[in-house]
Design goal:
There is one protein chain. By secondary structure, the protein is α/β, with parallel strands linked by helices. The chain has three domains: about 15-220; about 225-315, Beta Barrel (Elongation Factor Tu (Ef-tu), domain 3), CATH 2.40.30; about 320-440, 3-Layer(aba) Sandwich (Rossmann fold), CATH 3.40.50.80. It contains 15 helices and eleven strands. The protein has helices spanning about 15-40, 45-70, 75-80, 80-115, 120-125, 130-150, 150-155, 160-165, 170-185, 190-225, 295, 335-345, 365-375, 400-405, 420-430, and strands at about 225-235, 235-245, 255-260, 270-275, 285-290, 310-315, 325-330, 350-355, 380, 410-415, 440. Strands 9-8-7-10-11 form a five-stranded parallel β-sheet, with helices on both faces. Strands 1-2-5 form a three-stranded antiparallel β-sheet, with no helix packed on it. A three-stranded antiparallel β-sheet has the order 4-3-6. Helix 15 links the parallel strand 10 and strand 11. Helix 2 runs antiparallel to helix 4 (about 80-115), helix 4 crosses helix 5 (about 120-125) and helix 6 runs antiparallel to helix 9 (about 170-185). The longest helix is centred in the first third of the chain and has 33 residues, at about 80-115. The chain is elongated.
């Protein structure tokens, strides 16, 4: 199987930076419009409730941004990567939590100032009003999910449990929209302002539904993914070859990953993000997985011919971001899978550094060496325990990287492996003065 080489294209602005500018610019422009409209139409029943409306409005604005970040808009995903978008989503989510709590507290205070009851009685009076009750339910869901997303609690939950609970946020969004509609938005005094507000909501929700539901379902119906072969690569590593119809139409690139489900073999809710371990060739796809969990461990028993449900391709770990003619590809353990695909696709002078504890753990090494011979690339297998021996074995120390690849600052560098290894490499690259634009690293994870 041969992959189609993609031409190297360089742009004045890096794709990731361009996407950040576009996303941030569009968001700030939207916020500016809303701020102007709020100044004109946002006055509440008293000054306290005006502030409460301000925080309520910005709660909705943050929800719009949150949904956009997880809508899996292809243009954004290919340039920013799901890991970065998910990280932004997480941190902005805590901003949403505090905005919701502030809005609720100020609204209760505002109505308390208007009436003769205390704050607690005012709270229960508002709970008896349908619009307010819906807002309270939405806020409660957000608070619960945010609490469960704290790292200390999140580690105690399995991914499937946490993900199912996290989906309640979509329920909160729906209830929140009903709350807005019944309360009357800030902009009911202006037809144009109200049309603008709800049009943006429709666009955001459409992007979410299309990206998360319509496109994945359509692609699976159109391509009809099926298991073509299951090949053990080592005692705890297996490759699954997937075929289907019209795979030349699937916009996949070397370095990307897909979210895989194997209905009938695993439960529907069990999914894993596995990288493509071979460059897409228009006829088949391949994933290679290490047995680290129930889903990946069971792949060896997936029946040939069985249906596969795949979402994607996703990720920005591709040569779309390449800026220099030479490549340095650094992999650790099973992180070799997207690195191997990138080497297959590339026609650039390449060096591969493959870090494993022992040569027996170097899965796909024969394929790497064969590809390297075909492309005039170099493969260095880095074995041994980090820190062992005298002098200590430190393959990714700045001086060792510079010795292995003297022209390292002239190359684009792609790094994929365990988090400690990736962070060590990134620190060394920074110490060596490699420009940030030439460094590419992405975590392949669902959460």
């Amino acid at each position: 199987m041969t992959a189609t080489a993609r031409p190297l294209t360089r742009t004045a602005v890096a794709p990731g930076r361009l996407a950040t500018y576009v996303l941030l610019g569009a968001w700030l422009a939207h916020v500016l419009v809303i701020e102007i409209l709020f100044i004109k139409y946002g006055k509440g029943k008293n000054s306290i409730l005006t502030v409460g409306k301000f925080f309520g409005l910005h709660t909705a604005l943050i929800m719009m941004l949150q949904l956009t970040l997880v809508a899996r808009v292809p243009w954004l995903d290919r340039r920013l990567g799901m890991d970065r978008l998910t990280r932004w989503h997480r941190w902005i989510g805590f901003t949403l939590l505090w905005t919701v709590l502030t809005h609720a507290t100020i609204v209760v205070s505002g109505y308390t100032a208007l009436g003769s009851e205390g704050p607690w009685d005012t709270f229960w009076s508002l709970a008896g009003v349908t619009a307010s009750m819906l807002g309270m339910i939405a806020a409660s869901i957000i608070v619960v999910v945010a609490a469960l997303s704290m790292r200390q609690i999140r580690r105690l939950l399995g991914y499937e449990v946490w993900h199912a609970l996290h989906l309640l946020l979509y329920v909160a969004v729906g209830i929140g929209l009903a709350h807005q509609a019944l309360e009357g938005t800030t902009f009911t005094q202006s037809t144009a302002a109200e049309v603008y507000w709800w049009t943006v909501w429709v666009l955001v929700l459409t992007a979410l539904v299309v990206g998360r539901i319509v496109v994945p379902v359509w692609r699976n119906v159109y391509h009809g993914f099926r298991v073509a072969a299951v090949v053990p690569e080592a005692d705890n590593v297996v490759s699954v070859h997937v075929t289907g119809r019209h795979l030349d139409k699937l916009p996949a690139r070397a370095g990307q990953f897909m979210i895989w489900r194997f209905p009938g073999h695993n439960n529907w809710w069990q999914a894993n993000p596995f990288s493509l371990s071979a460059a897409p060739n228009g006829r088949s796809l391949r994933l290679t997985a290490k047995a680290v969990g129930k889903t990946s461990a069971g792949l060896r028993g997936v029946p040939v011919g069985s249906r596969v449900f795949a979402e994607g391709p996703y990720g920005a770990f591709t040569t779309l971001h390449q800026t220099r003619p030479g490549l340095l590809l650094i992999a650790g353990g099973v992180g070799i899978t997207p690195i191997r695909a990138l080497l297959e696709e590339s026609t650039e002078p390449s060096v591969v550094l493959y870090r494993v504890h022992s040569e027996a753990e170097a899965v796909l090494l024969p394929e790497l060496e064969s590809l390297a011979r075909e492309r005039g690339a170099r493969v260095h297998l880095l074995t041994g325990r980090t820190g062992a021996g005298s002098p200590p074995n430190m393959p990714f120390a700045p001086e060792n990287l510079a010795a292995a690849v003297p022209d390292i600052t002239e190359r684009d560098i792609y790094v994929c492996g365990p988090l400690p290894m990736t962070e060590a490499v990134l620190r060394s690259l920074k110490a060596l003065g490699v420009p940030t634009r030439q460094i590419h690293a992405e975590r392949f994870t669902l959460a």
